[in-house]
Amino acid sequence: MREDTSLGDYTTMKVGGVADYFYVAQNIDELVKAILIAKELGIKYFIIGGGSNILVSDNGYRGLIILNRAKNLAFLADKSQVIADSGVALSRLIMEAADHDMGGMEGLFGIPGTIGGAVYGNVGAHGVEVSQFIKSVTLLSVQGKIIRCKIDSLKPKYRSSYLKDQKKKNNDSPIVLSVKFQFSPNKKEEVVKKLSYYQNIRMEKQPYNELSCGSVFRNTTLINTNTNTNSHELIFGKELTAGYLLDQAGAKKLCEGGMKVSHKHANFIVNNGKGKAIEVRNLIEKMRQKVAEKDGVVLEEEIEYVGEWK
Hints:
By secondary structure, this protein is α+β, with helices and mostly antiparallel strands. It has seven helices and 21 strands. A hairpin with a 4-residue loop joins strand 6 and strand 7 (81-85).
């Protein structure tokens, strides 16, 4: 257990203030114990995995940050299944499954973050979502009991789940401990080719090697509520990417302090190394306003705000 730990070192955006308490859980037992002790003592806590898809306040976090480093993998080769701890990086799972001639999740390769966060937010890309490959999930319930459930119980939906909904509603939710994945049998060579293909797409179209928290906004279904909208450019009633709407609204020209909208992809904010979390939040509002003024659409964040925001 450490005190007064800077959180910028543990997020992909490299911003964030100091946490009162900071603990690294190296395995599932340590993760469970840390959560139960925090609950018993009435200490607010938040779990960080890969540090993507979150924005930590410059004012820090008044409570306990738990860094999840539980990283065991178990392979059931005859069934093309893998049991992964929630602290395992998603890309590591996909790569090591390929080593065992298992495939299917190649489209998710390169998405930053861990298994726990992937299930919590039901991450997806290239037409697939992580929930499509999950057989079961082991959770620590809000009451402190370890339970196992089928993926349907988590009500996965676009970039969300029952877990995320409960966190927003009650500021508490069950915690993902481990996940059993169902892959498809496939030769390693074929899987690796697909991994390379999707990796190249990601590097070409996203600010892959820059400091970013990932996609800022969720995609949306456009409804024509703005009489000033250039309707010939848009398809109403269809899902459009937030990146497209932001690009069309001119968001790539926006910046705030050490933060700017990526020139590669308008739904990403990148840090020049000197930016602050409040600058990200201010820039997010500018981006949202651009799209609202042009298309009458109010974009909703995909990222989660953590810490003390005023």
